[in-house]
Write a structure and sequence with these properties.
This protein is mainly alpha-helical and 131 residues long. Helices cover 70% and strands 0% of the residues.
Length: 131
């Protein structure tokens, strides 16, 4: 009789853990690239735009709002990459992206705090009827 071959097993991304060398080779450069992106965007994107505004408050506000929006978009992208890394069971890549999401959340919270502090009405008590 003829021997039947077993059907080839399907390999799902979550069926095996990603090798640690490949995982670290992805995690470290991506983390450095994304944090470098944020730092350069803060310096050259928002910082130079505020400097070029020469005191025009509308342009300064627009630059700060655009920077906060870019931080939010990058935070969402890093969270999506963390989920994908978790699906592919790349532990260090997922940890690096979750750390980046936390860093971006802190930076975004600080930017929003500065925004609210600089745009509150002078002499206004926060919970009074006139505010």
């Amino acid at each position: 009789m003829t021997e039947t071959r077993p059907a080839p097993r399907r390999r799902f991304p979550w069926s095996r853990r990603t090798r640690p060398g490949v995982d670290l080779a992805l995690a470290i450069p991506l983390f450095l690239l994304e944090t470098g992106w944020v730092v350069l965007d803060a310096i050259y994107g928002a910082g130079l735009e505020v400097w070029a505004a020469q005191g025009e408050q509308a342009r300064i506000d627009a630059a700060e709002l655009a920077f906060m929006e870019r931080l939010r978009v990058l935070q969402i992208a890093a969270l999506v990459l963390a989920v994908l890394a978790a699906v592919f069971r790349a532990r260090w890549t997922a940890i690096a992206h979750l750390l980046l999401v936390l860093l971006l959340g802190g930076a975004l919270a600080a930017e929003r705090h500065d925004w609210e502090k600089s745009h509150s009405a002078p002499g206004c008590v926060r919970y009074s009827a006139g505010c």
